[in-house]
Amino acid sequence: GWPSGDDAADAAAMNAWIETEIRRLPAQYLWVHRRFKTRPPGELPLYGRRR
């Protein structure tokens, strides 16, 4: 059942399901996560300014 009581196994199963769905319909995945919010001093930002 869900949850199984094993947090690591539950997280792995949930991530596997999410990955499967993204691979099935990649155009439907919303790519808004800014993974690299900060940059080393002197490096240009990776993202444009937020509105």
Topology record:
Blueprint: H1 7-24
Overview of the molecule:
The chain has 51 residues and is mainly α. 35% of the residues lie in helices and 0% in strands. The chain contains one helix and no strands. The chain has one helix spanning 7-24. The longest helix is centred in the N-terminal third of the chain and has 18 residues, at 7-24. The N and C termini lie far apart (44 Å). The mean pLDDT is 87.
Low-confidence stretches: none
Number of strands: 0
Largest sheet entry: none
Q: How many structural domains?
A: 1
Strand residue content: under 5%
Amino-to-carboxy terminus distance = 44 Å
- How does the helix and strand content classify structurally? mainly alpha
Instruction: Sum up the overall morphology in one term.
Output: elongated
Q: SSE order in H/E notation?
A: H
How many DSSP helices? 1
Instruction: Return the average pLDDT rounded to an integer.
Output: 87
From the alpha-carbon coordinates, what is the Rg to the nearest angstrom?
17 Å
Assign a percent range to the helix content.
Answer: 25-40%
